[in-house]
Amino acid sequence: MFGSGTKLTFHNYVQGTWGTFATPAGRVDYIMTKARLGEETNEPERRLTKSLAPVREVMEAGDLDFNQLLQRDLDDHRVAVNLIPYLLDLKPTGPAFFPPIVAVLLPFRSKRPSFFESLGQQAVVEDDGARWQQEQAGASFRVQRLVGADDRLHSANLGKLWWDDSKAQLVVLDGQHRAMALLAVERTMTKSWQNSGVGGRFRSFYENQVIQALRDFGDVDLSRIEVPVTVCWFPEETGEQAKPHEAARKLFVDVNKEARPPSESRIILLSDAELSNVLTRRMLSELRNDTSDSLLPIYAVEYDNPEVNSTRSARWSVLTNIHLLKFAVDRCVFGPPKYLNNVAQKIGGRLSQTDLDTFMQEQLDVLSLFPDQFEDGGFTYQRDKIGNTEFPLGQLDVISDRFAATWGRAILTLLSKTAPYAAHAKALTQSKDEWHVDDTGLSLAHDALFGGVGVFWTLRDSYEHYLEKKAAGAKAAKSDVIRAWEALKGREEAFETYRAQAYLDSGRTGGLKKSKAAYAVFNTHACQLGMMMTLGSLWELRKKQSGGADLNELPQFADALVAAWNAYFALESGKAKDRRLAFNKIEVSHPLNQIANMDTPQAVYFRYFWLQVLDTPEAWAHMAPWVVNRAVFEDMLSTARGLYLGLCQDQQLKALKTGRPEVIDTKLRPEAEKAARAALGRALKEWFYGTDEPYNSWLAQFGQKGVPTQQPDDAAGDAEDLAGSAKGAEDEPVTSVDDLLGE
Q1: Is 54 helix (H, G, I), strand (E, B) or coil?
Q2: For residue 91, what pLDDT is reported?
Q3: How far, in Å, CA of 15 to CA of 162, rounded?
Q4: Of 382, 408, 567, 599, which is the most buried if we count CB atoms within 10 A?
Q5: pLDDT at 452
Q6: Which residues neighbour 214 within 8 Å (Cβ) at sequence distance 6 or greater?
Q7: Residue 649 near residue 673 (C-beta atoms within 8 A)
Q8: Is the per-residue pLDDT at 461 higher than 50?
Q9: What is the pLDDT of residue 576?
Q10: Average pLDDT, the chain
């Protein structure tokens, strides 16, 4: 309707219907317009197609802060196989229709998040033969709205937005898959993949698919393909102190509330609705920004799983995932304290949010961070009311800095320095360093493990699609994408050898089998959360001893705990057991670990294992300076062992009932108890004590008290207590491609 203007100083612009609305992210202004394909022109609709960008093409992966993450993970396979054919197949009933893409104008300098200059005063100007109300943010962007003869805004609501692409980028906030379909066709038809910067790395996913689709659908008139686009900006988020990227993240969550549910991983990465999400993200940022090499590498953590209800890591390369970090925050920082003080308390039941918030205030010493009452963002906060869902957004850095320096550092120390996890990280780094990326397939495989968020899932889905086509008898060529997935399988075998060598000093067949069995346990949520809860329980002991505990010493306390565990794992075995295999279920005789399934709530039993390791002279030497009263530790260990013995007895009873269903429980239980007690005694003798005496003494003493049978407060609330994400999930890690393919 209007040209580019005679005084245009900006190279990019859109025009259409303007509007404004209020959200929790603040005021949002927008222009409703369209992007289209077709012949090369300078029309704004054609230029807009080229300007749309997924976050992965705007921000460098290595520089991406988790608090700035919007939507880097793209399901390229779904775009290539489903969306592009839908876009190009112009049926007689009408063209394909996509809901509007939502893009937001954000400030960047050299692909790093920046800020816009402050918006200037509104003024009425003449342009393109009409009068406009204009405001401008320095040299970053300019907005014009049509006015009538009286200089009041015209009822037609026509507007224009210009921007300088060296200072601002249009980032796709919602509909990135639709936008990528449009971009893929655009770049293929104009042969501009090589000019798209980072986007060129994904050429292999799309180019052949677009060419084939155009062949299949005949002479497609690309000029008929238009996609509605809503271009947004935040007029109140200009100036050096503004936070437009935070506002964009909040807007993304709002936009997607009623859409297809985002994965739990993405909710943790994006949402500021819960303080626990913010603290979890802070740990990821600490890993990303670590320059000391003292922490595990960020690529050892899976944080981009697109499955809606999955807490199980899929990559064989990772040792943990974002859900475990969230569980650690929940249990160690929010508690409730009963889970840490009472080691006979099973996980489950409905919890009081007030109790959780009160414990968090204690764990982070919120008393020293804020006055009794203070203002933030126009709201008044009471310090003693700060909690998981009520906290000052403007003071998040204060809270997360305290967490990062204390509990965050302690949790990451356990995952980074404890012997089995340090060995895993060392082997993974060795795999990365020895990876020679000399073709597209290997480059994609490398990105899937070490860099490209979302690439792993695209390779996996593409390979499944490839197998389905072959099974159906269709011709299926091996593309770079398929070769990349096959390369991953080969690298898995090499990594497992490196890991066995790093942990057991042997990469031979026997050592490899034992190593795999060990990590089938170590890399479960149950084992890792049990380790975190051990830290929390022992810190509670320290808090109760004379003199209390200084929160600032928590990282050193974690270092001592790691040193204690590593001292045990490093014990010379000789003719004795190799202590590095103490948690194995298989590939050892008389295993301590008799846990039938290793779902997340079983962490309470793994806490017993981690406590038991400390009951050795070599390990306790590191803990003695921190836990002065050995007797209170022994009481805790005794209670935890009793809980575990109860589990073993119940499992033995269940096994006996399966084999002899006609016999009543009261007759089978004595046999089950005898078998469970004997098995635990043999394990303790061989893995820890070298003699029967300590266990027999404990059993005689504990027999008078009985095995604790503490039940959850409300068994129906198990899933709620675990953030709804552990329900029915098996946490044993994936160790083969067959597992990944669900075979």
Answers
A1: coil
A2: 60
A3: 9
A4: 408
A5: 63
A6: 88, 220
A7: yes
A8: yes
A9: 76
A10: 86
Cis peptide before 694 (omega within 30 of 0): no
- The Cα–Cα gap between 184 and 209 comes to 9
Interval 551-573 mean pLDDT: 96
pLDDT digits (tens, 9 = 90+) for 18-28: 999 888 778 99
Residues in contact with 267: Cβ distance below 8 Å, sequence separation at least 6, in sequence order: 253, 277
Residue 454's identity, in one-letter code, is G
| 525 contacts 324 by C-beta, under 8 angstroms | yes
Residue 733 has pLDDT above 60, yes or no: no
**Angle formed by the axes of helices 480-504 and 455-471, nearest 10°:** 120
313-342 burial by CB neighbour count: b if 16+ within 10 A, else e? bbbbbbbbbbbbbbbbbbbbbbbbbebbbb
pLDDT at position 214: 86
Distance CA(741)–CA(727), nearest Å, equals 22
| Distance between CA atoms of residues 715 and 725, nearest Å | 15
CB count, 10 Å around CB of 661?
Answer: 7
**Residue 20 burial by Cβ neighbours in a 10 Å radius (0-12, 13-18, 19+):** exposed
Q: What pLDDT shows up at residue 40?
A: 82
Q: Which residues have CB under 8 Å from 639's CB, separation 6+?
A: 342, 343, 344, 708
In this structure, the strands spanning 373-376 and 320-321 are: unpaired
| 688 to 418, 577, 632: CA distances (angstroms) | 19, 9, 20
639-642 long-range contacts (CB < 8 A, ≥24 apart) are 639/342, 639/343, 639/344, 639/708, 640/343, 640/344, 640/604, 640/607, 640/608, 640/611, 640/612, 641/608, 641/612, 641/680, 641/698, 641/702, 642/344, 642/702, 642/705, 642/707, 642/708
- Reported as a pLDDT band with limits 50, 70 and 90, residue 63 is low
C-alpha distance across the termini of the chain, in Å:
57
Q: 323-367 pLDDT, tens per residue?
A: 999 999 999 999 999 999 999 999 988 899 999 999 999 999 999
Q: Is the pLDDT of residue 307 over 90?
A: no
In whole angstroms, what is the distance from residue 93 CA to residue 231 CA? 29
Residue 675 has pLDDT above 50, yes or no: yes
Contact yes or no for 253/270 (Cβ under 8 A):
yes
C-alpha distances in angstroms, 729 versus 348, 602, 739?
15, 12, 15
Residue 451: closest CA among 190, 35, 63: 63
With a cut of 50, say whether residue 492 has pLDDT above it. yes
SS3 576: coil
Longest Cα–Cα distance of the chain, Å, equals: 99
Q: Which pLDDT score is estimated for 56? A: 77
Q: What is the 8-class DSSP label of residue 734?
A: P
In 3-state terms, the chain is what percent helix, strand and coil (to 5)?
50, 10, 35
- Quote the pLDDT of residue 719: 38
Residues counted in the chain: 743
The amino acid that residue 614 corresponds to is L
Give Cα 68 to chain centroid, integer Å: 14
Over the Cα atoms of the chain, what is R_g? 30
User: Do residues 95 and 479 make contact, with C-beta atoms less than 8 angstroms apart?
Assistant: no
Using CA atoms of 56, 58, 60, 63 in order, give the dihedral in degrees to the nearest 10.
Answer: -110
Task: Quick: pLDDT tens for 377-387.
Answer: 888 999 999 99
For residue 710, pLDDT beyond 80? no
The tally of CA atoms less than 13 A away on the side-chain side of residue 145 is 19
C-alpha 2/C-alpha 15 separation (Å) is 8
Q: Is the pLDDT of residue 695 over 90?
A: yes
Pairing of strands 12-23, 26-36: antiparallel
Q: Which helix (H) or strand (E) holds 590?
A: none
